[in-house]
């Protein structure tokens, strides 16, 4: 069997929230991400699916949420993505600490990790998130969204995810199959002191890192946890080859599923984390012009015929309006 093309990195990360208005207010109004798609969970159309991205919905920038209001509070533990990290330009963290103070965001002291400065914080549901200062190259594929945060401080897509696993070796081998290269180890800080954090690097420029940490700490899915992490398989051929490679490792990937803005394959890796493989096409402009992304509730395919029923069951929300960012410079 031919080796699959290596993944460029993370495509999106999907999480579980509680109150949809709080979720919108935080990721748009506080973090300054673009609401690029306002839709529904295609497996549970009684709840929203929000997509927060850069200005153009570039692969590697989408933090998405299912706000299941009646679900219990979750707990991060083994078999989960324990941390999701965004990139911000070098020199931005003073701005972000000031913004977090203004908006009452719960954040921790900065830490150094693999030579980079990291600012850990939590969203309103307790989801662990991080900002990592990096040098943004001139040819970076992301486009900053500047309605709420100035360009020089704006989030520029994903930096990494951290996986908590009881046994790291099978997952590390799988990451190698997917095209990640081990690039370093260092002692972990924070929740798992004394353990070793191992970093793996993909071939792309955005969402290129996966960190692996051993832990037997128990967890449960709910508010404030990651539902799944998706990796880029840009074309259908790339995805099919990766699906076959994953299956050769004893895993059980699904057939391809049409998710309207990309085509997906899902599987649980050896440690229990739900992985997705997602294509680049057709993208978020398949059903809305770029200038109007997120402007309406999009109901993919068969769901449009159920619009009245679906809208009646969804919580009313208000999309945050842009603020005067000049006052914060």
Automatic annotation (TrEMBL):
Gene3D superfamilies documented for this protein: 2,3-Dihydroxybiphenyl 1,2-Dioxygenase, domain 1
InterPro entries listed in its UniProt record: Extradiol_RC_dioxygenase, Glyas_Bleomycin-R_OHBP_Dase, Glyas_Fos-R_dOase_dom, VOC_core
Tell me the SUPFAM superfamilies matching this sequence.
Answer: Glyoxalase/Bleomycin resistance protein/Dihydroxybiphenyl dioxygenase (SSF54593)
Signal peptide position in this chain?
none
Q: Which residues form the VOC domain?
A: 9-134, 157-280
Domain of life where this protein originates: Archaea
According to the record, the segments passing through the membrane are: none
- Pfam families xref list: Glyoxalase
**Name this protein carries in UniProt:** Diguanylate cyclase
UniProt organism field: Halocalculus aciditolerans
